[in-house]
Structures are given as C-alpha cells and as structure tokens.
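Colleagues,

For the teaching module next term, I've prepared a clean inverse folding example: a structure given as tokens, and then the sequence designed for it. I'd like students to try predicting residues themselves before seeing the answer, so please don't circulate the second half yet.
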C-alpha cells in the first residue's frame, strides 16, 4: 500500500512564537509512520506539509483550503484550538471550508476520550471532507491528540480509499471486516471469529513484517511514568534510582592514613623519632598530640593527629629501641625523609558532602549499595516495578509433575521466562495455561489484566487455525497491535500491543510458543521493555565475535545461541555454536552466553564461514546509560 500523504497543522499562539514548544505536531509525525489498524493495514504516512499558525480563523481557513485544493494531501490533521478559550477557533474555521462533515469520526474520538476523562466533553472536534482530502481536528495536548488519533486510525486508510474510489481496496477491506466480525457474550454463548473454520483462516498475516530497528524504536517510545517508592538500603539491590543521590557527609570525614606506618611532621625530615603511641581505626584524631621530634603509630584508615603533615610507611623505617617490657616501640629511625601530605587522605578526598554520588536511573548493584552506605544513606527512592504476569497458551501443554498425556508436552516456557525475569530483577506471577478456546483465553486474559500491568504470553500468535490471540486482543480488548511480525529468526510472530483496561494502560508482550523463540525474544523484547518501564535505559553489551563454524544464512537476520570464549592472544572472542538451532530445541540455549547477530542472506553472501567476524549480544550483561 502506498503511503498516505499527510499535512499536520498546529494551531497555537504559543507555538507560533516558539516552534520548539510544538510537541503535539511531533507526536503526530511519529504516529502516522507505524500505527497499526484493526484491519491489519498500516498508516504508512508521508508527511508532505507541516506548519504552525496562531489561533486566527482566517489563517487556519487559508492553510486548510490551500492544502486540500493544491497539495494533493490525503489527510490533514490539525492539533490545538478546539477548547473553550476565546482564541480557540479551529472547529469554526474547519466547518467553513469543508464540503461534507464526518461526524462519526468526531463521535468515536469523543467516546474514547470520555472513557479517560469527563473533561473530554469540553472538546469541540470537527471532521470533514474537502474535495478528496479528509480533515480531522485533534486536541492540542500530545497525549489527547495521540489518544484521539489512535481511536480513529483503523478507519483512516479505508476513508481515503473511499474518497479516491479505489474499488479493489474497498472490496478487500469490506471482505476482511466481514470475515473478522466477532461477538462475545456471557453465559454459554461463544464468540465467532471464524476460528473454527480452518478453510476460512487467513493465508497471509495481515501484519507487515517490520525490521528489528523499527520494533526497537516502537519499544523505545515507552518509558518510566514517574511512579516511585522508598525502600530500605538492604532491600534496594537491583532496583533503579528514581532521583539523584547526594552525599550526606564527607568521605573520609577525617584525615586518614593510607598506609600502616607513622604519622610525622614532614619538616622534621629523616632520622630518629620517639614513638608517642598508636592510633587505630575508630580513634579520635585529637586523642594524641604530636610534637616535633616525635611520631605516632597509625594503621591504614586510621585518623592522623591534627599536627601531622605526613605518614611514613613501616617499610621505610627501622626499629631502634623497644619499651622495657619489649611489647611496644620506643624509638624508630625514618630512613627516607617524607614529603608534605605523603600518604594522607584529605577530608572529603573520596566524596565531598553534597556531591552527586549516583545519578537517577542508575541500577543499584553491590558497589552502589556500598557507596550509599558509606555516605550514611539508609533509604533510597526507587522506581516502582511493573507487575508482570506469564500466561502460556496451547491445548498441548500440561504442568510438569502431571501424568504424561498423549499428544501433550510439559510447559517449559513459563518457568524459563519467570526465571529470566527474576534474574533481571522482577517478580513475575504465574497466570496459568489457557487452552485454545476463545472464551477460556478471554477469561484468562481478563483475570490476568485485573492483577498485572504487563502480560507476557507464549504461543497462539502465528498462523495456525487455533492461533487466536491477536484477534482476541483487537476485537475483545480493543488493543492496538503496535507490531505483529518482525523480520528475525527465531521469533517472527512476536507481537507488542497495548489496551485500556479498568482505566489503566495494559501492555502485552506476546512471544512465540517454541521454547527457543520465546527465550530469545524475551531477551530481545520483553526484558528491554520491562527495563524501560522501570527507568532502566541500559543498553545491551555488543561485542565482535569470530565464528568457529560454518552457518547457512536465512533470508531473515538470525540470532544464534553461542558460547563466547576469549584468549590472551586475540581480543576478539571465538564463538562456538551450542548445537542445532531449531527453535523447539531449548538445549541450544544451555550454557549460551551470547546471541550471535547474523545478517540475512544476500546474493553476495549465502553462508558464514569460520573466521568471519559478526556482532554478538552478551546475555545477562548491560551497559548503564550515561
């Protein structure tokens, strides 16, 4: 499908004076590029015109008329000027230049917005047609503009087809809508999605296959929403800091000795010294007064007397005389004259009071807890963790420990994913197994969404006649499928979706059912997404790796499980295959410490050979965002 041509008109006195404040226009540009519709089509948008105008009725009318009459735009989106302010005149300007109204679009946006806030009743949106251009008013805030656009996006491509009288596309859309009609009732009634009719299933996925880069960019739109909590230091390991942390005190809080030796007055030079006694760690710096010609024995980390200007290490001294009982030193000789401040850590030399010690979004590991403790911190403010559920799907699955049944396999995906997420710092919930029955799966999803923010599923996302998850998400839960296929191996049918449920945004990471596919895509999509929701914007560590085996390339980029090993002779790791890479063989993940990022095949290259160097993503390692 050719990209639709869009014009984006921001109406705002403020943005007209300072274009850098136009956030709604930027949001709409992103949305029209890759927004999935319920008919499976993508609004592949080419933004042909972008303009910002003040809240002036004549100016708005002039731009809308010029764009629809002369620029061959399919759709014009306006944002702003739809409220009750005396300067809000976008609806009035739009109504004066359109030839026909499209009240259904405005109604859908209003109904959608009212589910979010009753204040949406104050929005005055007008939609209509001028010539062959569809003109849609959207609210002025980025969030409201996005919500309204998402509500009507499924209808926009078909609306353009109707305006252009593209009969083949119109007929195809009508046929698709009729075939995918769905109804769901309570009691003993069931929904009808042609799932029981194998011959009626789609032979080609309605979801475009996007690149890994596109999928990653979609995931990156989502981030931590600012919810946080205080936790005690002993319980914060693995959590993400919600705010910068500054030191409560100097470290060290006193001048401390770097060596085991003797605190001296440097100007005394070398030679004999009388030993006044010793200062150990924990003693007060002023408990012994140092005078010229004398020294004080100190241990590493101990405070040095206030009068001391250097520390001489034990190795640079010689014992001359012991006390009468032979237990203490009485006189020593300094063999090498000391210099000012030698082997003394000044106050605050490690950390200054009030200085920044850890930045917001830092993941708290063992060292970070030590830094926090050294500065006297007992509680830290961290981001709230999303609640996560794992739901397995499939008639063939049964729980480990049950008596084996014919045609069944034990569910290994759930425990694998739960352990992976636990290793990443999360506490997932077991949402059970849903068989391939429409109502069972709907009920399982409803139950899960009542408890969790993110539902991770395995299975039922491919092209089998019982793969019903995507239709259920779109038709029952009004979910937006942000992507439904990714150009990769394994894991092509991986799906990411969102919906509104009980007034909250819920997220779906739908992974394939094959164990390897589920494991690999969990590393590539699920864990990075969960990290972003917690404010952890760390990046995976990617290193070069040298193949030790031959590998026939697939048409899709492939993520092969390998073991990387380094040698002293070569800084580039050698990559050893973990065996047969078939997606059902979980043993190929055993001991793997990296995913080899193999390119798709081309006419120039059909196979990789030993010695070839490619990139590899380390598993379980992340590089903190700077």
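(Answer key — instructors only)
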């Amino acid at each position: 499908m050719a990209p639709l041509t869009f014009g984006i008109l921001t109406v705002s006195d403020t943005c007209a004076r300072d274009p850098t404040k136009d956030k709604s226009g930027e949001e709409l540009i992103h949305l029209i590029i890759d927004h999935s519709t319920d008919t499976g089509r993508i609004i592949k948008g080419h933004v042909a015109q972008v303009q910002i105008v003040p809240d002036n009725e004549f100016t708005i009318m002039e731009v809308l008329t010029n764009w629809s009459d002369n620029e061959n735009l399919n759709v014009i989106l306006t944002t702003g000027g739809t409220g009750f302010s005396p300067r809000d005149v976008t609806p009035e300007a739009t109504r004066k230049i359109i030839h026909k109204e499209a009240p259904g679009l405005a109604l859908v946006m209003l109904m959608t917005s009212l589910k979010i806030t009753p204040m949406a009743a104050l929005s005055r949106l007008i939609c209509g047609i001028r010539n062959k251009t569809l003109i849609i008013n959207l609210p002025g805030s980025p969030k409201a503009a996005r919500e309204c656009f998402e509500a009507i996006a499924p209808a926009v491509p078909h609306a353009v087809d109707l305006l252009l009288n593209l009969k083949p596309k119109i007929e195809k859309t009508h046929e698709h809508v009729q075939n995918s009609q769905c109804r769901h009732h309570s009691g003993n009634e069931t929904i009808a999605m042609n799932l029981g009719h194998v011959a009626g299933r789609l032979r080609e996925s309605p979801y475009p296959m996007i690149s890994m880069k596109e999928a990653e960019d979609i995931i990156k739109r989502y981030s931590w929403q600012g919810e946080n909590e205080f936790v005690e230091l002993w319980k914060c390991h693995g959590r993400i800091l919600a705010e910068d942390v500054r030191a409560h005190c100097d470290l060290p809080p006193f001048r401390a000795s770097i060596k085991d030796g003797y605190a001296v007055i440097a100007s005394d030079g070398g030679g004999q010294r009388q030993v006044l006694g010793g200062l150990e760690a924990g003693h007060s710096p002023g408990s012994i007064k140092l005078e010229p010609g004398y020294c004080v024995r100190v241990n590493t980390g101990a405070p040095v007397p206030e009068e001391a200007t250097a520390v001489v290490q034990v190795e640079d001294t010689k014992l001359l005389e012991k006390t009468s009982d032979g237990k203490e030193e009485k006189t020593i000789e300094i063999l090498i004259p000391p210099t000012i401040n030698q082997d003394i850590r000044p106050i605050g030399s490690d950390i200054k009071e009030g200085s920044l010690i850890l930045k917001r979004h830092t993941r708290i590991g063992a060292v970070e807890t030590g830094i926090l403790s050294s500065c006297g911190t007992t509680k830290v403010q961290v981001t709230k963790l999303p609640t996560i559920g794992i739901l397995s799907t499939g008639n063939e699955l049964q729980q480990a420990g049950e008596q084996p049944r014919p045609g069944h396999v034990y569910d290994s995906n759930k425990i694998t994913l739960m352990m992976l997420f636990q290793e990443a710092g999360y506490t997932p919930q077991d949402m059970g197994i849903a068989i391939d029955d429409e109502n069972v799966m709907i009920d399982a999803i409803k139950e899960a969404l009542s408890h969790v923010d993110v539902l991770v599923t395995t299975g039922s996302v491919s092209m089998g006649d019982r793969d019903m998850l995507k239709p259920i998400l779109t038709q029952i839960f009004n979910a937006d499928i942000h992507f439904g296929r990714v150009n990769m191996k394994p894991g092509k049918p991986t799906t990411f979706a969102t919906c509104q449920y009980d007034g909250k945004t819920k997220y779906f990471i739908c992974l394939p059912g094959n164990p390897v596919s589920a494991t690999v895509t969990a590393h590539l999509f699920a864990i990075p997404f969960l990290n972003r929701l917690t404010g952890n914007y760390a990046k995976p560590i990617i290193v070069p790796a040298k193949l030790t085996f031959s590998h026939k390339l697939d048409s899709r980029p492939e993520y092969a499980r390998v073991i990387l090993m380094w040698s002293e002779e070569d800084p580039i790791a050698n990559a050893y295959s973990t065996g047969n890479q078939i997606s059902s063989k979980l043993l190929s993940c055993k001991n793997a410490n990296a995913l080899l990022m193999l390119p798709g095949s081309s006419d120039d290259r059909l196979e990789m050979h030993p010695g070839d160097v490619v990139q590899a993503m380390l598993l379980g390692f992340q590089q903190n965002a700077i």
